[in-house]
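P.,

For your records, the input lines for the assembly:
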Amino acid sequence: MATIRDVAKRAGVSISTVSAAFNEGRVSDETKRRITDAARAVGYSPNLLAQSLKSGRSRLIALVPGDITNPFFGNWLTVIEKHALAANRAIIVSNTHGVAREQTVLELLKAQRVAGMLINPQGTGPEYRAYLEAIDVPLVTFDQFVPGLERDYVGTDNELAARMLTEYMLRLGHRQICFIGGQPGLWTTERRREGFVAAMHQAGLPIDEDLMLIANYEGDVAYRETTRLLTGPKRPTAILASNNVMALGALQAMIDLGFRCPQDISLTTIDDVPWMGLVKPRLTFAIQPLHELAAVAIKWLLERIESRDQAAIPPRRMILPPKIILGESCADLRV
Amino acid sequence: MATIRDVAKRAGVSISTVSAAFNEGRVSDETKRRITDAARAVGYSPNLLAQSLKSGRSRLIALVPGDITNPFFGNWLTVIEKHALAANRAIIVSNTHGVAREQTVLELLKAQRVAGMLINPQGTGPEYRAYLEAIDVPLVTFDQFVPGLERDYVGTDNELAARMLTEYMLRLGHRQICFIGGQPGLWTTERRREGFVAAMHQAGLPIDEDLMLIANYEGDVAYRETTRLLTGPKRPTAILASNNVMALGALQAMIDLGFRCPQDISLTTIDDVPWMGLVKPRLTFAIQPLHELAAVAIKWLLERIESRDQAAIPPRRMILPPKIILGESCADLRV
DNA sequence: CCTTCGGTTCGAACCGTTTCGATCGACGTT
DNA sequence: AACGTCGATCGAAACGGTTCGAACCGAAGG
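C-alpha cells returned:
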C-alpha cells in the first residue's frame, strides 16, 4: 500500500505538504498538481486507521440493533446509511441477541473508537443504565427506552399503539383477548402490555393471566405458545401480538391448527413486514413512523459527533404516535 | 481514555512490559498482577486503531451485500456473524445498491484496512473483474460469480434451480411461461434465464420475448412490469420470478388485478422469505442451502486472513444444488 | 571470583497520518 | 540597503500501540 511518504518522494515535496494538499492547507496550484499526479501514479489512498488514531476517533458509525433479520431494523439501516454516507461516514452493524452479547459488542465498538453509536438497548436495571451512561461516545438510543438514562432517545408511543388496537377489538365485541408479549422488563413490550391492560380495564374487563403469553419477540416461540394456548381449555376470540414476527408465528399456528382468521380468531399486531399485503388475511396493525424516527436519530447523532462539546447538548427525546392500518384480520362479533 | 502509558506509570513498569503482559509475552506473575490491577484501576482498554495501524490490518470483516433488506442477506449475516465473533472479529456491513456505490464502498473499506471482505459483486465486465482482482485484501465472493476472477466463490447452481422449476411447470402443462429477470448481465439472473430457456427449448417451445420481463430484482418494479404484462394482449399461464421479492411483487400485482393464483396464473420463484409459509397461496420455490454456503464462505475467509501467505491458497469454488419446495401456487393444466 | 545463562524488563524505533512552529524566498516599504 | 510581510514549504513531535535487541540480575558452573 502506498503511503503519504511514497507520494511525497515522487512529487519531490515533504509529507506535510502532501497532507496539506489533501486537506485544505495552503499549497500552490503547481505543487498540488504534482502531488495529485504522484498520488494517482502510486495508487495512494489515505490510511483511515492512521487518520483516526491521530484524531482520536474513527469515522465509523455503529448501528446496534437487537436482531437485524427483523425487517424493522432493515428499514432503519437503509435510512441511516443514506444519511451517514452523505456525511462521508460508514455504518458498522453489530447484531446483539440479548443483553449478554450486547456488552461484548459495545466494548468492541468502544475499542474501535467508533465516532458514534445508534443503539437499541436490550438491558434493564440500574447497573445497565449506569453502564450505558458511562460510555463516552456520542450515543442515540432508539426503540427501547432506558428509564433515567441521560441520552437522546427516539421511539414510538407504544402504550398508545397497543391501546388503540385493543380498543378497536373491544369495539368489535371481543372480550377474551390474548396478549403475546416479548421479554418481560423490555421497555416496548411493557408499554404495549400497559396499553392493553389499560384498555381492558377501561372497558371493565379483568385480565386473564392465562391469556398473557410471553414469546420473546421471536416468531417460533410465538408459534409454540400460540399452539399451546389454542390446544388448551381457554380460547380467546382475539390475539394482540406485540410485534410483527410473533404475529406471523401466531397466525401460522392458528392456520396449522385449522382455525380460520378472522372467523375463528382475530389478530392484530404492532409493526409490519415488507409485503405484509400478501399475508392472508391482511393484518390490522399499528405502524411506527420509521423514516421520521430514523432520520431524527441519525441527525441527532451527527450533531453530537460534529459538535465541539457534545456534553453541552442536553439529552433530547422524541416520541411519535403510531398509525393504525386496517386489514381483514378482525371479526366483528356484534353482528 | 486511559492509554498503555497510564497503566505503565501506575504499575511502575515500562510500556513494553504492559504490552507484553497483555499479549503472550514473558512477564513474571507478580508484575502481571500489578499490571492487570493498574489496568482495571484506570479503566484501560487497548486502542484497536493503534493496534491495527501497527499491524497494518484491522480485525474487522466486511460483509458487502447488494441489499441488506432482502432477507436472503439477513440470513447470511446471522451465520457469518456467529463465526466471526467466535474468532474475535466484528462484522461491518455496507450496503451497495448497484455497482456505482459498490466501488465507493469498497474504497472506503480498503482505506479502513479491513481484515477481509465477503462480497456479493454486482458488477460485470473485464474492467470490473480487474478492479476486484487488484484489491489486495483477503476476499471471498458469494452469490454473484465474476467470470475469470481468481477469487474464492460460493454459490448455488442457479441454472439448475430455474430449469427444475420450469420443467415442473411444463410437466403441469404450461406452455406460455413468463420469466421475470433481474438486471441483464448479472450472473445469477443470467444463469436462471439460461435454465429457463434450456428447459423451454428442450420441450420444443420457442421463447416469446414479450414474456421476458426485467425487474432488477426489485419488488416494486416487478409489480409494475407484471401489471403491464397482465393488462396487455398476451397473457401467460405461469410466471417464473427469478428472485423472492420480485415474486411477491408479481403476486401482489396479480391479486390487485383480480387474477387468482394458481387458478388463473401459476407462480414459482427462487429463494424464500422468512414468512413465506403465510403467503397465500403457498409458493413453490427453489431454496439455496444458505447455512452451508455462508459457513463455508466465512471459513475460507478466516483461513485466508490467518494464513501467513494467503496468495499461496489457490482460488476455491463451491457450488451447491438448490432444493425445490412445493407449494400450491401452480395449477395442473392436464386435468 | 569470573563467566555464562535464562528469565525479566527496558528503551527506542516504527506504523501513517496530522499539526504546528520554524524556515525560506520573493516582494513591497521606508 | 535593511526590514517586515506573507505565502509556500518543511521538520519534528505526537497519536497509542508492538516489536526487537540490549541491559539487567541472580543463580549456577568452572
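Two observations worth noting. Chain B has a mean pLDDT of 92. Chain B has three domains: 4-46, 60-156+290-320, 158-288.

Regards
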